[in-house]
């Protein structure tokens, strides 16, 4: 009897290790709050990684496609029910993540006899002004952080994720050119997937440019754009074709 | 036994699972007077479909407001013109707006035109108890884009209050003023110079505004158009590429020219 809590802790520890092992090698995703909207980027191999959720909301995730799909569907269901029962303006990312997705993920993670969610994701909400933007970094165990500006990264390795996020926020500070930002995100994507350092030993500009271009061969680069000002209620646009101009 | 699996992307089954039925099916015998009567219509012109409607809402002989939008954008490629009891009609539009967007986002593809047409028919059928009691009648006109042809082609459908759907070849009208303008549309379609299908946007908007002026002369419940009082219609244009709203300022400009 006295052993039970320890067994549970061990099981949770094993489970965390298992999820991290399964997520290793997952292709990172990015979200950047810009003056005209929020840009989301992912590089996939046949499976989509960036999706529209609701009028002002989008998600980008890495992990098992079936688990990304479950999270996406749960978020879409919750957002549309909320919009129908109250109003579209009442759908907020803070509530969607804080009271919807996060508790579900945490409950699932702690139920040690069911399969865990193999997913790491970013959820974004575009505001009327840049300072009202919200980007949530949601983890497989339900933990989440809310960011109100800059670039946020979701990757399978927390050290690489933090390094990429710091480098991108320094590199892109004050920049608004969408193509330039996509280019920088893809360079960071290449560095993370190739285990290149972001501090000392960061590959040169030319290496990074060539690197991501070669690495995306045979993969699809998805760019989602949540436009800030629009006459339409649905703010999400796919920008993938515009990539050819880079 | 567990509930049957919900139909993928079906917003109605999501509502049912959460016991959030969109329409009431039981009414009180002491129901208040409902606002109704209107003129809405749609016709094909050279660029696509023009859908228009007056902006008046009445309750018996009382004018409730002259600022109602009866032509509603359901999604980027479908329009609904509502005639009948506004409480029910606006709720139907809201259900359809959420339902179409829910399907598009969850299934990663747009609902087909026939499915959209049937979704509205289903709501009308579910509204049958209200319709039979005479206080919830809705007779809408729907326009959507057929994406299966190249180039995508806007189409018009009209309904009876029980939910039967009809494809309109040239035009459709609904509401208390519809009889008047249906005659004009029929005449213009047969003998007009130009016929509605040959009209450009300017001609089509002028024609639509004049239709509402005539309708308001014969139907007190139709608000009509009065440029002197800056009272215009709700006019939206549906093309293969999407929806455009013709604002009051543009209507004034097109009516003058």
The CATH architecture of chain B comes to: 4-Layer Sandwich
Q: List the helices and strands of chain A in order.
A: HEEEEHHEEEEHHHEE
Q: Architecture of chain A in CATH?
A: 4-Layer Sandwich
Q: Helical proportion of chain A?
A: 40-55%
What about the largest sheet of chain A? 5 strands, antiparallel
Computed Rg of chain A: 18 Å
Q: What gross morphology of chain B would you assign? A: globular
Between the first and last Cα atoms of chain A, what is the distance in angstroms? 62 Å
Structural class designation of chain A = alpha+beta
| Alpha carbon gyration radius of chain B | 18 Å
Number of separate domains of chain A: 1
SS elements, strand count of chain A: 10
The portion of residues forming beta strands of chain B comes to: 15-25%
Task: Note down, in words, how this protein is organized.
The complex is a heterodimer of chains A (246) and B (257). Chain A has a single domain (28-230), classed as Glutamine Phosphoribosylpyrophosphate, subunit 1, domain 1 (4-Layer Sandwich), CATH 3.60.20. Helix content of chain A is 41%, strand content 23%. Chain A has helices spanning 4-23, 65-85, 93-110, 158-171, 178-193, 205-215, and strands at 29-34, 37-44, 50-54, 57-63, 119-125, 134-138, 144-147, 151-154, 220-227, 236-238. In chain A, a hairpin with an 8-residue loop joins strand 5 (119-125) and strand 6. Chain A is globular and about 60 Å long. The relative contact order of chain A is 0.18. The model of chain A has no long low-confidence stretch (mean pLDDT 93). By secondary structure, chain B is of the alpha+beta class. Chain B has one domain (33-256): Glutamine Phosphoribosylpyrophosphate, subunit 1, domain 1, CATH 3.60.20. Chain B has helices at residues 11-17, 86-107, 113-126, 128-132, 178-191, 201-218, 248-256; strands spanning 40-45, 48-53, 57-59, 62-65, 71-75, 78-81, 141-146, 153-159, 165-168, 171-174, 234-239, 242-246.
């Amino acid at each position: 009897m006295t052993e039970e809590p320890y067994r549970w802790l061990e099981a949770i520890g094993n489970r965390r290790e298992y999820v991290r092992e399964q997520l290793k090698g997952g292709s990172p995703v990015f979200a950047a709050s810009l003056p005209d909207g929020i840009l989301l980027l992912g590089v996939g191999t046949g499976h989509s990684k960036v999706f529209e959720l609701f009028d002002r909301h989008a998600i980008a995730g890495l992990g098992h496609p079936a688990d990304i799909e479950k999270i996406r569907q749960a978020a879409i269901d919750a957002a549309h029910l909320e919009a129908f029962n109250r109003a579209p303006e009442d759908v907020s990312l803070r509530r969607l993540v804080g009271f919807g997705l996060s508790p579900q993920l945490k409950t699932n993670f702690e139920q040690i006899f069911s399969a865990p969610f193999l997913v790491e994701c970013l959820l974004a909400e575009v505001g009327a002004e840049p300072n009202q933007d919200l980007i949530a970094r949601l983890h497989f165990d339900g933990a989440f952080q809310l960011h109100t500006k800059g670039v946020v990264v979701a990757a399978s390795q927390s050290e690489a994720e933090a390094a990429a996020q710091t480098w991108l926020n320094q590199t892109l500070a004050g920049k608004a050119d969408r193509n330039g930002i996509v280019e920088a995100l893809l360079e960071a994507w290449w560095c993370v997937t190739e285990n290149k350092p972001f501090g000392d030993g960061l590959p040169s500009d030319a290496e990074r440019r060539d690197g991501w271009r070669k690495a995306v061969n045979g993969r699809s680069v998805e760019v989602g754009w949540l436009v800030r000002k629009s006459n339409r209620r649905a703010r999400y646009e796919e920008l993938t074709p515009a990539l050819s101009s880079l | 036994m567990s509930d049957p699996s919900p139909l993928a992307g079906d917003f109605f089954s999501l509502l049912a699972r959460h016991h959030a039925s969109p329409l009431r099916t039981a009414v009180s015998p002491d129901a208040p007077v409902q606002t109704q009567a209107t003129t809405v219509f749609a016709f094909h012109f050279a660029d696509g479909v023009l859908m228009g409607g007056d902006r008046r809402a009445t309750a018996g002989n009382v004018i409730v407001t002259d600022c109602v939008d009866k032509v509603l954008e359901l999604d980027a490629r479908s329009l609904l013109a509502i005639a009948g009891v506004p409480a029910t009609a606006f709720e139907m539009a809201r259900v359809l707006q959420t339902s179409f967007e829910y399907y598009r986002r969850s299934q990663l593809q747009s609902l087909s035109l026939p499915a959209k047409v049937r979704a509205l028919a289903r709501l009308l059928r579910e509204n049958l108890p209200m319709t039979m009691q005479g206080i919830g009648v809705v007779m809408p006109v729907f326009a959507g884009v057929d994406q299966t042809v190249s180039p995508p082609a806007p189409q018009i459908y009209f309904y009876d209050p029980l939910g039967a759907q009809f494809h309109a070849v040239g035009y459709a009208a609904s509401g208390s003023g519809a009889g008047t303008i249906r005659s004009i549309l029929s005449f213009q379609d047969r003998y007009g110079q130009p016929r509605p299908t040959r009209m450009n946007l300017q001609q089509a908007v002028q024609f639509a505004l004049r239709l509402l002026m005539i309708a308001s002369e014969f139907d007190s419940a139709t608000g009509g158009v009065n440029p002197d009082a800056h009272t215009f219609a709700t006019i939206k244009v549906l093309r293969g590429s999407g929806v455009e709203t013709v604002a009051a300022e543009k209507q004034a400009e097109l009516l003058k020219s």
